[in-house]
């Protein structure tokens, strides 16, 4: 029931956000510009280098590759069935790309680092959120030692990736929000279709 409610809320919120963006709703535009200007005023060479590195390390394709390592570690307890992993991580990336084509929103003007493709939703945010959600869900059911620390690291990674997209002017804030909502919806759908093999363990 919780998964169903999560799916309905996330999907509804994403659709509403997408419609508002498509109609260039004034509140969305003003909020995006305000946040973009905030980060633009923070620009300095050291931060730029740092966030460029973050963006490169957590490129969506690389995140998919990293997640294969995550899946390899979990192969022993078969927590996530192979179909679930493929549909959630790889299928999610393809689905997100199709969504980008539907909305075909242009990127912010004058980014600090040239980026190609459409802006909504943020691919970096979507993919890192998907992998982080998979990791946190597994941690919550594995009782691995210091699992809260690993959860904190996952959240921190997501936060840094989001900051990198905003700081580098690669996305508007609404793109980031769209990536988060789409990731939550997609993850919840896949949990329902391909439920993990939940068996609490001490590792």
Automatic annotation (TrEMBL):
Residues 82-191 form the Phosphatidic acid phosphatase type 2/haloperoxidase domain. The keyword Secreted does not apply. The chain crosses the membrane at residues 7-29, 49-73, 85-103, 115-137, 149-170, 176-194. It holds the Pfam family PAP2. The keyword Membrane applies. It comes from the Bacteria. This is Phosphatidic acid phosphatase type 2/haloperoxidase domain-containing protein. It comes from Liquorilactobacillus vini DSM 20605. The lineage of its organism: Bacteria, Bacillati, Bacillota, Bacilli, Lactobacillales.
């Amino acid at each position: 029931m919780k998964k169903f409610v999560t799916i309905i809320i996330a999907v509804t919120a994403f659709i509403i956000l997408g419609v508002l963006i498509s109609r260039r709703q004034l509140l969305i535009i003003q909020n995006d510009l305000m946040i973009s200007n905030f980060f633009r005023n923070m620009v300095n060479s050291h931060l730029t280098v740092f966030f460029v590195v973050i963006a490169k390390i957590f490129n969506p394709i690389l995140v998919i590759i990293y997640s294969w390592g995550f899946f390899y570690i979990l192969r022993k307890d078969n927590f996530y069935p192979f179909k679930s992993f493929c549909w959630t991580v790889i299928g999610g990336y393809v689905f997100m790309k199709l969504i980008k084509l539907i909305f075909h929103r242009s990127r912010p003007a004058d980014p600090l680092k040239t980026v190609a493709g459409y802006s909504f939703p943020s691919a970096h945010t979507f993919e890192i959120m998907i992998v982080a959600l998979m990791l946190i869900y597994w941690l919550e059911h594995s009782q691995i030692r210091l699992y809260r620390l690993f959860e904190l690291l996952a959240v921190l990674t997501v936060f840094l990736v989001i900051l990198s997209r905003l700081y580098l002017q690669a996305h508007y804030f609404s793109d980031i929000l769209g990536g988060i909502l789409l990731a939550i919806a997609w993850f919840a759908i896949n949990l329902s279709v391909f439920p993990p093999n939940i068996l609490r363990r001490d590792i």
